[in-house]
Amino acid sequence: MGRLGIFVIFAIFSVGVAQEFRLPRNILPTSYKLEIISVLDEIPQFPRFSAPGKVWIRFDCVEATDVIKLHVLDLDINEGGIYVHNSVGVPQSIRGFGSQPEYNFFLVNLTTALVAGESYELYIPYTAPISPTRLDGIYLDSYVDPATSETKYVSTTLFAANNARRAFPCLDEPDLKAVFEISLGHHAKYHALSNAHLLDTNPLPEIATWILDTFAPTPRMSPYLVCMIVSDLTYSEAPQPYPDAAIHRVYAPYYFIDRGGGVYSANLSSTVNAAFESYYNISYPMSKLDNVALPQFYYTAMENWGLMTFADRALLYFEGETSAVQKYSLSLTVSHEVSHNFFGNIVTCKWWTWIWLNEGWATFASHQGLQMTYPELRPWDMFIPQIYQTAMAMDESLNTHPVASEPLTPDAIGGIYDDIVYEKAATLIRMMQNFVTEPILQEGVRRYLQKWQYGVTEQDDLFLEIQGALDDSGQGSTLLPPSSTIKGIMDTWTLQAGYPLVTVWRVSPTQIQLSQRQHVRNEIPSGDEVWWVPVNLNVLTGPSPGRRKVWLANDGVNLTLNVGEDELFFVNPESIGYFRVMYGSEMLHQWARLLEMDHTKLTPTMRAKLLDDSFQLAFSGHIPIDAALDLTKYLNQEVDFLVWKSVEKSLTKLGNLLRSGSDKTGQLFNDYVSAKISYSRSALQTQRAMMDAISVDYLDQELTRLGPYFTLGDESSPSVKSTVQEIDSILKPGQEMVNLEQVQEKVRKIGQNEATRGTTWDLLTERILSVKENPGATHALMSLLEQFCPFGNSDQDLVQVNQFITSTRRMSFTRKHQSILTSCDDTIKKNIHAKAKLGPLVKSWLIKRR
């Protein structure tokens, strides 16, 4: 799933805690027969925008019980029509119904207990809403036909993580897999889509000109993967990569399809899916894969099996209009969702504790998919700033949480999708692949997918199969430390929060020492966390240049290595290990001198790692800010987008801290960075002919985007009025796609301008409060607010944030959105502190440079 990107507070997570909101396992579903009518037009039989439904749930009783407990939320249940009978049709007497609304439980109380070992069927008639305000369950979407100005309606669904219960009564937990037989009724002017292919269409007897589409049974799957869409969308179809391959289509409003907007993604979906089938040696079991572009969508995308849904901007590609960076983002999103066919759909996490087995693997595999099919997009280079560095930035707070974390409340389930289970988990998988080697990991994952096909797993199930592949290879003793296992190593990374800071220093001319401790931004580590740390070293000079691999053990003991007096070595050169590196002051001076003399002596990945780590350590007070700034002197020669992308956050953060105030430090810093960008542009023009087109496009767009941040004054900022108009367009989507990323970019540019920051904050927060009942609009606006917060660096900014936090608490905003504001408050406080501490030091460094 493409997610919100919202940080979730650790207090709502733990591992191994008994939970009252879990269903008992006395009955296990085997299949659902589901019939739903989507009422998008005025008819006398049913209210408009309602979904009358019937569900037949077949289940096995594994433990005698006189209560059938299942999930129901916001459904109108016709209790008089409910019945239960056994496998031969004998009715089971019902003595009444009950509920536990705090857990969304609906209870069918029986006169006599069901018999263990017997099979039963439960029938429930009900009506669900097609919500015009929510963006989960069954909800109403729409677009405006540009030819007629008519509003066209779409009934669609979003059930992750636990919202299938809003569409039909069910046992709505990921391990309770079943086969789904779905029929959708609708007016004949629409068509229906569901997970499986269409079997047949028949008239709907009770309503003239209406039809009932019946779909093939699905494989066994979790309820959150069910999807049902009724619309008049049309499609582009990709050629089949091999005979009998699944049909891949992209659905969207006709005017997008007519412009060719679905062609690229349909082909990409088909190509990447075939690549995964080959690489992991497992077949995609469905006959088709539809990808649907929706104007209003809560996440970026959702991996419903056989019927994936996307925000339209994340799926539609227009040749000559979509930029190279947007094309990459779109491609990665499609690859991510397609990879879920294998990680999440064929094999599913047993409970949300292990959601990283779905999302972390899909994030990792999405880069694999692009590398196998579109390597020119440089996905593994993009991984470093977008995945690796993002995870580290999120994971350096005391409020972080382990990759494997169990939600402790029903509300917490909706907040499981964050940077830890996506980016951090993907980074850990990439690290594991490096220390066990790609062939062994590939074989282990093949075994895992085959063994657990259509089943559910915990992380130990994965580690066991990788361990088996490693043992069978005969390389375990050379690849892992003595007496260690895959589980033992990886548990130190998945079951505890945070990551290590590896310190490197010379203890003598011929020896260096490496040590580890938890890295926490601006705070003291809370405990004695240690990890099994795989450390790669690249020896650049001396008599024995080359690569070395060592392990820092999880016993807290420093590691001493023998080196040559003249050896210059780089730790973690490919940004494979999930840790920051802190060099001694003399080594940092060596790196700065080397970069100025010949920066190509370090690879782009090394330069990106060195700059990112050094600035983050300077912001945390571990090294002087001068040492980090010295590393930027060479940037006028830098023409690799990876390096500029990696240093962007550090430069803009420092620029944000220095912007306000009566002295000229901000202007001095802006002039310094602007000059580096200008020189880099000149170097790009000189070297353009020697670079590949994608790298040129990436760098050109990065420098174009970055340049205005370092120009003070109103002329560099979009007008507040025009940007607010674009913000309002997000709330009322019509025939044009709203590019949320572009609006975010404008909000960031306004945020950097002290003169307009307060006004824009007021306008944004006013609109958030006005749409508090609309989750989609609230999410879009909160994502803009999240981009805005890092610019706050004054007491007045802090006052505004705290006032808004107070008002949203009164309005009962969600925990996820409150966590954004909590993070915003924390960021501004840290900015105020850092500004006071770093401002004079940066000013002194800049003056010396003049």
Descriptive notes:
The protein has about 850 residues and is of the alpha+beta class. Among the domains are: about 25-170, tricorn interacting facor f3 domain (Immunoglobulin-like, Sandwich); about 340-495, Orthogonal Bundle (Neutral Protease, domain 2), CATH 1.10.390.10; about 715-830. It has 23 helices and 31 strands. Strands 2, 3, 5, 6, 9, 12, 14 and 15 form an eight-stranded mixed sheet that branches. Strands 17-18-19-21-20 form a five-stranded mixed sheet. A four-stranded mixed sheet has the order 29-26-25-31. Strand 27 and strand 28 form a beta hairpin. Helix 4 (about 355-375) packs across helix 7. The radius of gyration is 28 Å and the shape is globular.
Strand composition percent: 15-25%
How much is the radius of gyration in Å?
28 Å
Number of strands: 31
> Ranges with pLDDT <50 over ≥5 residues?
4-18, 713-717, 733-738
Short synopsis of the structure:
The record marks 422 as: Transition state stabilizer. Belongs to the peptidase M1 family. With 850 residues, this protein is an alpha+beta fold.
